[in-house]
Design a protein that fits this description.
The structure is a single chain. The protein is 39% helix and 22% strand. It has a single domain, classed as Ribokinase (UDP-N-acetylmuramoyl-L-alanine:D-glutamate ligase, 3-Layer(aba) Sandwich), CATH 3.40.1190.20. The relative contact order is 0.15. The model has no long low-confidence stretch (mean pLDDT 93). Helix 8 packs across helix 9 (230-237) and helix 10 packs antiparallel against helix 11 (296-310). The protein contains twelve helices and 14 strands. It is α/β, with parallel strands linked by helices.
Length: 331
Amino acid sequence: MSKPSIQVIAIGNAIVDVMAPCADELIGRFGMTRGGMTLVDTDRANELYAAMGPARDISGGSAANTLAGLAALGSTCAFIGQVADDQLGEVFAHDIRAGGIRFDTPVRAGDPPTARCLIFVTPDGQRTMNTFLGASQFLPADALDEAAIADAEVLYLEGYLWDPEEPRAAMRRAIAAARGAGRKVAFTLSDAFVIARHGDDFRSMIAAGEIDILFANHIELAALTGEDDFHAGIAALQDKVPLLVVTRSERGAVAVTGGELFEVPAEPVATVVDTTGAGDLFAAGFLHGHVGGRPVSECLTLGAICAAEIISHYGARPEADLMDLIKRRMG
């Protein structure tokens, strides 16, 4: 097997985040699911956008955020995702390429427009997301660069994108291409609502040995396994996935591989400003360590450092020098 020229290639939603602080009252007034992610249609997106205060436009999307962190750490990355031929599509493409990430997916002409996520951030730093998937949900299988997938050490897939039919078919094809080339497949469950809709698919993929690295948080772990007790959930999955990685918010994170459990605490943060992207950047730090051949315990620490940086400011893309933070923290 040839040495890969790309360390991580990801498939995910190509989204521009529109973020604004808000009072707790606004969440209730508009019937939003506090701290969760809800898919919205065009009318709802327009209604919520009109209710937002001054906002910041920041390129986002879960897998794209992870790649932004990986690229900032020096990993070689590529992204596959669908944008429309419009202004936000140009913003997304510019931002991801400016971060040193290869992005060659052709734009989609006509409606719907490029996806956007309207994020309301309450005073405690919690984010309530309302996602209009737009063009991202029409990623066709023929847009895949299968040669690039075969040339990547890890294929990283975003659970959010499993919901629409067209990209789901594309990701199944990508898994086949990666496994056919002897590469690893990493999957992030993304959200409990995705598991509620597609948990049977995910459990079947795990049973078939199609996932090498599974990322989840403690809520998603419970949703996938049906076990409310955290340790029971770990026990239910640990022998079914070669590498299981589970985050626990302020309680840190664990990883299990080969029957051995590793655990790290959360990194200290002076003030939690915005939790958007914490899981995405944790995955970035962990995967950076993984493709670099670091021990699992160090991969967890790298993930925790990156997650702590993200929650210290607005937005899901790193602002501080991640490599410098890691050097100062780990030497």
